[in-house]
């Protein structure tokens, strides 16, 4: 059951589960778009790509990802995902720890939200 959703300049997120200590979202990244380069101080994340492909950045590594690939983000890891394809990139995000929207420190952002 959909609990919450929000459109973003890069696509959309939908929240399906929000329990103390963990949260599950479906994230859709539009073709040619990318999330902000960011980190979290209070949560880890695990992403599973279920559609499309793109480039996942974690700290100094850039990794090509596609359907079935997983990405683990530890507390403090600098990360983003970019959809460099012609189709939607969809992944399931599981957050673990203190799961609040304001635990995003944006380092770079294509949409003027950094800082």
TrEMBL record:
GO terms for biological process: GDP-mannose biosynthetic process; polysaccharide metabolic process. Keywords: Isomerase. It comes from the Bacteria. Residues 8-109 form the Mannose-6-phosphate isomerase type II C-terminal domain. InterPro entries: Man6P_isomerase-2_C, Mannose-6P_isomerase_type2, RmlC-like_jellyroll, RmlC_Cupin_sf. Gene3D superfamilies: Jelly Rolls. GO terms for molecular function: isomerase activity; mannose-1-phosphate guanylyltransferase (GTP) activity. This is Mannose-6-phosphate isomerase.
């Amino acid at each position: 059951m959909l609990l919450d959703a929000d459109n973003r300049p890069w696509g959309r997120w939908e929240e399906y589960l929000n329990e103390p200590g963990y949260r599950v979202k479906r994230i859709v990244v539009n073709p040619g778009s990318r999330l902000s380069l960011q980190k979290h101080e209070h949560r880890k994340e695990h992403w599973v790509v279920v559609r499309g492909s793109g480039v996942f950045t974690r700290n100094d590594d850039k990794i090509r990802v596609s359907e079935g690939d997983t990405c683990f983000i530890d507390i403090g890891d600098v990360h983003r995902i970019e959809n460099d394809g012609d189709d939607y990139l969809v992944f399931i995000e599981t957050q673990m720890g203190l799961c609040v929207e304001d635990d995003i420190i944006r380092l770079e952002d294509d949409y003027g939200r950094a800082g």
